[in-house]
Specification:
Blueprint lengths: L2 H11 L2 H8 L3 E6 L4 H15 L3 E6 L13 H18 L2 E4 L11 H14 L3 E4 L7 H16 L17 E5 L13 E4 L4 H8 L3 H4 L8 H6 L7 H22 L1 H8 L1 H6 L3 E6 L8 H7 L8
Parallel strand pairs: 1-2, 1-4, 2-3, 4-5
Antiparallel strand pairs: 5-7, 6-7
Bound molecules: zinc ion (ZN).
């Protein structure tokens, strides 16, 4: 059957939303504050989207230039930008690191404009960022900037130099463990069992963070806890143990949410998960639309 005839059949048989999914890749944007946050929180889901031909970009809103116990400044920013790019290549996605200082991000008008332009230019269908309740001020302010942009991306005369979006994206929060003012709610739960190894391939590239501990690391940590740089397989196994516990914990904590999307039987077997909360600003999708936007979820539980 020719492509045109197939599209004509789909046009007659299915709603417009399904046609759009058939013909146009989804465009996903994941914001983090530092060049590792988006990768940690959504790297497995990013791989699943990318494998299906969808376009994913991971954006770090700061350059990470104080995110290490031993080094800082321009050279660290360059190192971390290169790490994020290498990670993105392993995940099959695009990476962008904004040149704003780590630890100094503010929810300013200038930054609201920057975030709005990035969302518009990417023509995002889904935008993910941290919640504005978090121990780190940069994480908090990325959450605020997401909220501040959630309506403005559609307003024609805000940043009129960049074409506004006609359709408001779905805005999501990545997960955290903070309880106040309210705990994270897993509205969407994704099994990343099928992409976990590839996510680890990506995280393996984030040496300054994954193996040197970033700002919280130390010479002692690197010497005593982490296998040496010349033993790749021991390092990789160590990384897998750490991330297996982390992502496995997400699956255990959010088994109920996994059941909603996968059914109880399949959900009980999920080992590793990534989870997202729907922001109440921006698009409020039905369950059917969420399955279109997360096409690796089963079509019904
Ligand atoms: Zn961070």
């Amino acid at each position: 059957m020719s492509l045109c005839f197939r599209r004509l059949c789909l046009l007659l048989a299915f709603p417009a939303a399904l046609i759009a999914q058939e013909t146009k890749p989804l465009r996903i944007l994941v914001f983090g504050a530092h060049p590792d946050d988006a990768e940690y929180k959504a790297g497995g889901s990013a791989v699943l989207w990318a494998r299906l031909g969808h376009e994913v970009k991971l954006v770090s809103v700061t350059n990470g230039d104080i995110g290490h116990w031993r080094e800082a400044g321009g050279p660290l920013a360059q190192r971390r930008s290169a790490e994020a790019a290498a990670c993105a290549r392993k995940l099959g996605v695009t990476s962008q690191v904004l040149d704003l200082h780590d630890g100094e991000l503010m929810p300013s008008l200038e930054n609201r404009r920057t975030i709005t332009r990035i969302i518009r230019e990417w023509q995002a269908d889904v935008v993910i960022a941290p919640r504005p309740w978090d121990y780190h001020p940069d994480h908090r302010y990325v959450g605020i900037l997401l909220q501040d942009s959630a309506f403005m991306v559609t307003v024609p005369f805000f940043c009129p130099d960049t074409k506004p979006l006609k359709k408001n994206p779905l805005f999501l929060y990545s997960s955290d463990g903070f309880q106040k003012p309210y705990p994270f709610k897993a509205d969407i739960a994704v099994s990343v069992d099928e992409s976990f190894e590839q996510k680890l391939d990506g995280l393996h590239e984030l040496t300054s963070q994954a193996y040197e501990g970033g700002a919280s690391g130390s010479a002692e940590f690197v010497a005593k806890d982490v296998p040496p740089a010349n033993d790749e397989s021991a390092r990789r196994a160590w990384l897998k143990r750490r991330w297996g516990a982390r992502q496995g914990g997400e699956a255990d904590r959010h088994r109920e949410a996994l059941s909603k999307w996968y059914g109880a039987q399949q959900a009980s077997k999920v080992r590793y998960a990534e989870v997202f909360e729907i922001c109440e600003y921006g698009r409020q999708p039905s369950a059917a639309e969420i399955r279109l936007l997360f096409p690796f979820l089963p079509s019904r539980p």
